[in-house]
Amino acid sequence: MKPDDSKFSTVPVGRLGIIVHPSCKDLCDKIDQYIVNWRKERNHNHKSNVVFKDYEKDSFIIPSTCARFGTGEAKALISDSVRGADLYIIADVLNYSLEYTVCGHKNHMSPDDIYADVKRLIAAASGKPKSITVIMPFLYESRQHKRSSRESLDCAFALQELASMGVDNVLTFDAHDPRVQNAIPLKGFDNIMPTYQFIKALLRSTNDLEIDADHMMIISPDEGAMQRAMYFANVLEVNIGMFYKRRDYSVVIDGRNPIVAHEYLGESVEGKDVMIIDDMISSGESMLDVARELKRRNARRVFCISTFGMFTNGLDSFDKAYEEGLIYKVITTNCTYQTPELLERPWYVSCDVSKYIALLIDSLNHEASISALLDPHDRIKNRLAEYAVTHTIKEDNN
């Protein structure tokens, strides 16, 4: 995806600055490089104008640190001026690989720790940026989005807290329930769906797909995933099936009612490739149960597609499922931390969203509309037409 230069003739909101939390350094290095290259190649008539000062740079990343004291307390330091900047703070709250020391003991950073660092970075900016956008690919505490009993509403409170600190916009991917944006109705909130990126990864990783209603189906693993599954099914012009979870409401384990069984609603999957679409793979237990049920119904190949691959119980269960033929491919984005072991698995395909985020940042810095970026229907159709001829797709240029 390369930006349409006709959309970038407007004056930038401010000098572009990106603050990168260590939790997503690798992703942000790619994002930064895309923007650097695009702006160097862009034929802009007003580049010499004073309002375009620092429009071209070797890097838009502003150096920053979140240092820890021996007690585990922390402080943020931004090492360059952010006055008048259009500032983007990017953090992956699910990156558990980071460590810090508390009184000589090693601690892994939790989502709470990383979210606290985001607030520290906002505070370190001291209200000087022209605007602040927080890009949090996995929205902090987004699974705690509604109150069922005497429960905290963590995600809504966190959004209000960010807004009170001066954040103008929040960008996130595939929010568990995007209605949580109602907590900050006067602030910007964009829920980005990586559907186009998923389809690119799928088409590049498998060269013998027959994409029609006779050979493929989209499967929603539960009622909560139906909307994203319906979009996939519509753009691919295939049918949809759904599982729903029967739970034992008399028992509570780890804060939730255990799943008794997965019941299927839909037409036969026999002999068809099936795509299970969900927002996240946590332990993977539900995803593999659904795959097992589909194979029991004689599905041909099972593709597991999810925005966030956390694999909280490790990879052994997926290795076993792959060896048994239950799953064929698992596709997740690089929005969250990926272990080296995961990237080496023969069943795993990484879906890169760095170019997409770079284009969003570049567009927002120019106050250009991102509506076309959020609706990838036409681009998907073009890729499907290309795949029908070549059984693969090339790197996109638009």
TrEMBL record:
<feature type="domain" description="Phosphoribosyltransferase">
    <location>
        <begin position="193"/>
        <end position="306"/>
    </location>
</feature>
<dbReference type="InterPro" id="IPR029057">
    <property type="entry name" value="PRTase-like"/>
</dbReference>
<keyword id="KW-0808">Transferase</keyword>
<dbReference type="GO" id="GO:0006164">
    <property type="term" value="P:purine nucleotide biosynthetic process"/>
</dbReference>
<dbReference type="InterPro" id="IPR029099">
    <property type="entry name" value="Pribosyltran_N"/>
</dbReference>
<dbReference type="Pfam" id="PF00156">
    <property type="entry name" value="Pribosyltran"/>
</dbReference>
<dbReference type="GO" id="GO:0006015">
    <property type="term" value="P:5-phosphoribose 1-diphosphate biosynthetic process"/>
</dbReference>
<dbReference type="InterPro" id="IPR000836">
    <property type="entry name" value="PRTase_dom"/>
</dbReference>
<dbReference type="GO" id="GO:0002189">
    <property type="term" value="C:ribose phosphate diphosphokinase complex"/>
</dbReference>
<keyword id="KW-0545">Nucleotide biosynthesis</keyword>
<dbReference type="GO" id="GO:0005524">
    <property type="term" value="F:ATP binding"/>
</dbReference>
<keyword id="KW-0418">Kinase</keyword>
<dbReference type="GO" id="GO:0005737">
    <property type="term" value="C:cytoplasm"/>
</dbReference>
<protein>
    <recommendedName>
        <fullName>ribose-phosphate diphosphokinase</fullName>
        <ecNumber>2.7.6.1</ecNumber>
    </recommendedName>
</protein>
<keyword id="KW-0067">ATP-binding</keyword>
<comment type="similarity">
    <text>Belongs to the ribose-phosphate pyrophosphokinase family.</text>
</comment>
<dbReference type="Pfam" id="PF13793">
    <property type="entry name" value="Pribosyltran_N"/>
</dbReference>
<feature type="domain" description="Ribose-phosphate pyrophosphokinase N-terminal">
    <location>
        <begin position="35"/>
        <end position="166"/>
    </location>
</feature>
<keyword id="KW-0547">Nucleotide-binding</keyword>
<dbReference type="GO" id="GO:0004749">
    <property type="term" value="F:ribose phosphate diphosphokinase activity"/>
</dbReference>
<dbReference type="InterPro" id="IPR005946">
    <property type="entry name" value="Rib-P_diPkinase"/>
</dbReference>
<dbReference type="GO" id="GO:0000287">
    <property type="term" value="F:magnesium ion binding"/>
</dbReference>
<dbReference type="GO" id="GO:0016301">
    <property type="term" value="F:kinase activity"/>
</dbReference>
